[in-house]
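Q: A small favour: would you put together sequence and structure tokens for a protein?
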Amino acid sequence: KVEAPREVLESLLNAEGRIDFNTIIPFMGAFDWNGIDCAAEEAAEVITAQPLNDHPLIASLQRDSRTKVDVLKLSDEGFEQFVQMLRNKRLHGYFHSMDFARDQWGTKWNACNQAVNLDAQEFEFETAWSCPRPIYKALSAKFPDAT
């Protein structure tokens, strides 16, 4: 739940009137798919020499998955995602919007299960796993006198 002056809350709304973190910290890449092909992402991680996770168990799983991925065996959609991920990484530093969101917003998805009440100067929403602290910091910087 967020309580703030109307102008602060309005800055979080997109053209459809939904809470959208992209209004504050936008993803500049493109990714036209609803889901991420895991094999395509693994292939993109291999080709760009992404480091393995710091956790030994996760690193072991990543290493195993990366040795099995074959970009030539991706589905047509998976291959297109792979190519777009490489474009995004080269141009914007992130494979896709979820990769960006985890790093820049502090959560892997945008606001969901929203309730917007501008008259009461409050929003309610959920995020995936964690608080979007970077969004709050960016809002504080944009509206330094607001509480």
